[in-house]
Each structure stands twice: as structure tokens, then as C-alpha cells.
Automatic annotation (TrEMBL):
Enzyme class: transferase
Gene Ontology cellular component terms for the protein in this record: membrane
Reactions accelerated catalytically: ATP + protein L-histidine = ADP + protein N-phospho-L-histidine
TM helices/strands, residue ranges: 54-72, 78-101, 113-131, 151-173
Keywords: ATP-binding, Coiled coil, Kinase, Membrane, Nucleotide-binding, Phosphoprotein, Transferase, Transmembrane, Transmembrane helix, Two-component regulatory system
Species of provenance: Streptomyces kanasensis
Molecular function terms from GO: ATP binding; phosphorelay sensor kinase activity; protein dimerization activity
Low complexity bias: start-end ranges: 285-308
EC nos: 2.7.13.3
Full protein name: histidine kinase
Residue runs in coiled coils: 171-209
SUPFAM superfamilies registered for this protein in UniProt: ATPase domain of HSP90 chaperone/DNA topoisomerase II/histidine kinase
């Protein structure tokens, strides 16, 4: 006969292997209790053999066998209690009954079974005690009231049954509470590990997005300035001998483009090198709570993006200067503005400027010498921009400028990140058109 939970020792450790003891000290304790119970039952069996007229060795051997059953208290506590109840009329097995009831109440046996066996033990102890006390009172010729024998019997029966049952119930409840707390701790540890993994993933995603943003910003800055420098350098080479004064002007423009490129690069690298000041931790963090995940590289990246997209970045007012630079490089550019100009969010103005800048850069790379039309439209809740170039002579279009193929991809990423719409492609006239619409607010 086995019961649920009977395979656990007093510390709640599950049994391992063919034996029912989880630890050596549990086995040593049960064997020690078994030896003690066997010696007690052997001594009481000797007296029982004398009263019953049995040979003394039989009584001692019977007591040893009965008492040793206590070793099974962790595996079969019901068997131990039943044996203790069975030998109660022989007035033996007190240690076995006491420990067996405790083990039964402490394990995961259904409470109705525990109550039934505890009631049987109580009744058996009461009956045996009642008979023994009445015999002793009659033998001593001691006058007592009718209440004396039942009261003493009840007191003895409750004293032998209630303490081990109540103590076992307390230990079992405490063990279950500890198991519940241990499970909750394991669950919380798993949740914290999952949250840490998610935070690491978010930080990795933030770093990846920031690297993409920085690469896109560097591409926009370097590609445009260097493209203009290459165009001016080609013009300088063409007119150096024929028109020295124009060559000087082109050289000055090349130098100016280079200085502007270096200035923008220094500003961007300065933002990346800046060490943002971390805000003071909230009270929960000062008390030992987990720190926010945006500390370290992710915080630096976020501050860099904030600084790069702030008020110091390019805006729509700079588009006219951008067009003038392309005109100075010899490109015919027409700027058309419709609607009332107004200020937008910094990230909207910077994105609009970069779209126009990258589109003009692509013209210098792939369609040098073609006519370009730049359109800006200020609408109620959005701003639209379009850069369209016409067909060009293939010989004039070859500016020998490398292309990484990321210009259009970067423009699309910028626009869609703000919830806008981006369209690009060739025109029916043989040119190329880049169009974007950005919401006025993000």
C-alpha cells in the first residue's frame, strides 16, 4: 500500500533510487527509531507473553518484528499506524503509534484517511486504557466516582493521539508552504531571466538600429559633399588651362565643399563621443530594484540620435542653399515651393532635407548634366517633396562616382520610420523621380 507523498522525507526531498529515503540522515533516523521501537515492543512483548501464557521468546520475537515496522514510516505510514492500532490491546507499540501518527499527518495522505486512522487509534487507546484503569481500580479496592475511569481513559487516549497528529499537520503545512515559496522563487527567477533576455534583445535591436541610422547619416553627409567635390574637380580639370579664373573659382568651391563635409563629420563624431549624463535613479532603483535597461551603449545611441535629430540638424530652410550648391556645380536646378512655409518637428525637417539631398546626390552620380526640378509642397497636415531629373547624355552622365546602392534604401527607411510614404522610379521621359510625403507631426 502506497500513498501520495509518502515517498518524501521530513524535509520534503523526493525519494531517489530503489529506496524511499532521499538522504542518508533520514535513513539513519528511521532505522534508529525502528531499533528503539523494536526494543520497546520486545520488552512489552515479554510482559504480554507472560500474561497470555506464551513462551517468552515468542513474545520477544513478536515485539521485535512489530516494532521494526516503524522503519517503513516514510513509505507506508498507513501500514505503520494500522499495525500500531492492531497491537494496542497487547499494550505495546507506543513509540510506533506516536511516530506513525505524526508521519501520517505530515505526509500527503488525504485528510479523510488521516482522520479515520486517528479516530481508530483514539478509540483503541481509550478502550485499552479504560479496561486497564478499571482493573487497576478494582484491584486496589479504591473507591472512585463513575466519572473517574472514563475521564482518565479519555485523557490518556487524547494525550497519545492528539499531539502527534497536530504536530504532523503543522509540519506538513509548513513543508507545503516552503515548497510553494520555492516554486514561486524558481518561477520569479525564470521570469527575471526571461526579462533580462528580452532587455538584452531590445538593447541589441537598439544598437543595430542606431548603427543603421549612423551609417545612413554618414552616407548622406559624405556622399553629397564628395559628389559635389568630384564634379567641381572634373570641371576644374577641364578648364584649368583654358580659363584660369574659373579654375580658381572651382578650386575654391572644392575647398568649401571639403570644409563643409569635415564640419558635419566632426559634429556627428562629437555627438557619438559625448558621454551622456545619466539621470539619478528613481527611489525604487536606490532601494535595490533593477536598473533601467537603457544604460550603456543603448543610452549613448539614443542620445546621439536625439542630438543628431535636434534643432542643430539641417532643416527645410537649408534646401535653398542645397540647391545653390548644385547649381554652382553646373547642374540646372529649379526649386518650386507651394503653400505657406512653416516649421515642422525637427525630425520631419531633417528627413525632408536628407531626401532632397540624397536625390540631388544621385543626380550628380548618375545623371550629371540633366535638368532637375525640386518641388516642396506645404499642406495642412503634411509636407511633400519631389526631385525629378530629365534625360541626360550618357557621356555627360558618367562622373565615375562609386555607388553603394544604399541611397534609395536609406531614404525609404527615413520616411517610413516617421509614418510617411516614399516612391521612386524612372519617368516616362527617361529621367528619374523621387517623391516623399511626411506627416507634419510625429
Amino acid at each position: 500500500m502506497t500513498t501520495t507523498g509518502a515517498h518524501q522525507d521530513t524535509a520534503g526531498t523526493p525519494a531517489r533510487g530503489p529506496w524511499w529515503w532521499g538522504r542518508r540522515r533520514s535513513a539513519a533516523l528511521d532505522i534508529g527509531l525502528g531499533v528503539l521501537s523494536a526494543l520497546e515492543c520486545a520488552a512489552e512483548g515479554a510482559g504480554f507473553a507472560g500474561d497470555a501464557g506464551l513462551p517468552l521468546p515468542v513474545g520477544v520475537l513478536f515485539g521485535l518484528v512489530v516494532g521494526s515496522v516503524l522503519v517503513l514510516r516514510r513509505r507506508w505510514p498507513i501500514v505503520v499506524v494500522l499495525v500500531a492500532i492492531a497491537v494496542t490491546p497487547a499494550e505495546m507499540g507506543y513509540v510506533m503509534g506516536f511516530v506513525g501518527l505524526y508521519s501520517l499527518a505530515a505526509c500527503e495522505v488525504p485528510r479523510r484517511i488521516t482522520a479515520a486512522l486517528a479516530g481508530m487509534s483514539l478509540a483503541a487507546s481509550f478502550l485499552v486504557t479504560f479496561v486497564r484503569v478499571r482493573q487497576d481500580v478494582a484491584a486496589a479496592d479504591f473507591e472512585t466516582g463513575s466519572w473517574y475511569v472514563p475521564l482518565v481513559s479519555a485523557f490518556m487516549a487524547v494525550g497519545l493521539t492528539a499531539p502527534p497528529v497536530l504536530f504532523g499537520l503543522y509540519i506538513g503545512a509548513r513543508r507545503r508552504l516552503m515548497e510553494s515559496l520555492r516554486e514561486r522563487a524558481d518561477s520569479l527567477e525564470q521570469e527575471l531571466s526571461l526579462l533580462a533576455d528580452q532587455a538584452e534583445q531590445r538593447a541589441q535591436l537598439a544598437r543595430t538600429e542606431e548603427r543603421t541610422r549612423i551609417a545612413r547619416e554618414m552616407h548622406d553627409v559624405v556622399a553629397h559633399r564628395v559628389s559635389l567635390m568630384v564634379v567641381h574637380a572634373a570641371a576644374l580639370q577641364a578648364v584649368a588651362l583654358k580659363d584660369p579664373q574659373k579654375a580658381v573659382r572651382n578650386a575654391a568651391l572644392v575647398g568649401e565643399m571639403g570644409r563643409q563635409a569635415l564640419t558635419e563629420l566632426r559634429e556627428m563624431l562629437g555627438v557619438l563621443r559625448s558621454d551622456p549624463v545619466s539621470p539619478p535613479p528613481p527611489p525604487a532603483a536606490r532601494r535595490g530594484a533593477a536598473r533601467p535597461a537603457a544604460v550603456g551603449p543603448a543610452a549613448t545611441a539614443a542620445s546621439a540620435a536625439e542630438a543628431a535629430g535636434g534643432e542643430d540638424g539641417p532643416c527645410l530652410r537649408d534646401v535653398e542653399e542645397l540647391v545653390e550648391q548644385s547649381r554652382a556645380a553646373g547642374t540646372v536646378v529649379e526649386l518650386l515651393v507651394s503653400g505657406d512655409a512653416r516649421e515642422y518637428a525637427p525630425e520631419v525637417e531633417q528627413t525632408a532635407y536628407r531626401v532632397v539631398q540624397e536625390a540631388l546626390t544621385n543626380v550628380h552620380k548618375h545623371a550629371a548634366g540633366s535638368k532637375v526640378v525640386v518641388r516642396l509642397a506645404h499642406r495642412g497636415d503634411e509636407v511633400a517633396m519631389q526631385v525629378e531629373n530629365g534625360p541626360c547624355d550618357a557621356a555627360a552622365a558618367d562622373a565615375d562616382l562609386p555607388s553603394g546602392g544604399n541611397g534609395l534604401v536609406g531614404m525609404r527607411e527615413r520616411v517610413t520610420a516617421l509614418g510617411g510614404v516614399f516612391v521612386s522610379g524612372p519617368t516616362d521621359a527617361g529621367g528619374f523621380r523621387v517623391s516623399a510625403v511626411l506627416p507634419a507631426t510625429t
